[in-house]
Amino acid sequence: MDQLDRLWEYQQEDMANDRLDNDMKNAPSRVKFLKSREYLAAQRDTLKRIEAEVAEMADRIDIVKDAITKLDDQVAAMHTRFEEELPSSLEDTRGMLQDAKHIFNGVSAYESEMKKLKRDAEECDRQRSEIRPKAARAIAEYEELKKIYEEESKEKNAVLEEKRSLTALKEKDIDIPLLEKYRVIKTRCVPPVVKLFADQCGGCNMSLPSVILKKIKNRSEVVECETCGRIIIS
Fold it and tell me: What angle (nearest 5°) sits at the alpha carbon of residue 215, between those of residues 209 and 218?
């Protein structure tokens, strides 16, 4: 058995390992497990976002309350000043009314903001009430799917590791430059090695000139398809 025959046998094992690995990645139990994990992470992120919004609203409510209290104090002070000393001129009256208008507008704006903050807080509470039971169910489902996935993957990983060990033994019989060439080709073409079929490349089906066909059949050198780059063997 020459190097190309060994490489062909190695490829059969290598491709089988890749198929098994791909089957494991696309196994229903793994797909369900990953979807459950993503959903749970999304629910947790949503709860964190809501908690952050609630904390921010609580801080803002305290600020607005303080602002309203200060404006109320200004209204009381203005009322006291008006009772103790009436405006002496029309200009003073207008100034006092302007100050009063400014204060009342401020109070009105803060009260409107306070109402909106309370509505937003109530909406956040409603969302939390909806999400928490969903998150609890998601956690239970996630733990169950994780258990199933880990049990299945443990068995499949053991099989895959055993097959990879056998593949590694075949790998030792192949010259390093040829094996490196195989790996480079594999990054762009799968499978990297194909057989000659009806004087055509078994990968891209391109017809080959007689000179190349002779080299492939005589195995005088490693031949790569000029079209797809695969190694062609007879």
Answer: 135
**CA-closest candidate to residue 54, choices 112, 115, 110, 120:** 120
The helix (run of H) or strand (run of E) holding residue 84 is helix 28-84
Nearest-angstrom CA–CA distance, 142 and 132: 15
Rg (alpha carbons) of the chain, rounded to whole number: 38
Q: Helix 3-25 vs helix 176-186: angle between axes, to the nearest 10 degrees? A: 40
- Percent of the chain exceeding pLDDT 90 equals 47
Stated pTM of the model: 0.65
Predicted confidence at residue 87, as pLDDT, reads 63
Interatomic CA distance for residues 13 and 15, integer angstroms: 6
The pLDDT assigned to 84 comes to 66
Contact present, 188 and 229 (Cβ < 8 Å): yes
8 A C-beta contact, residue 232 and residue 196: yes
pLDDT at 95 > cutoff 80: no
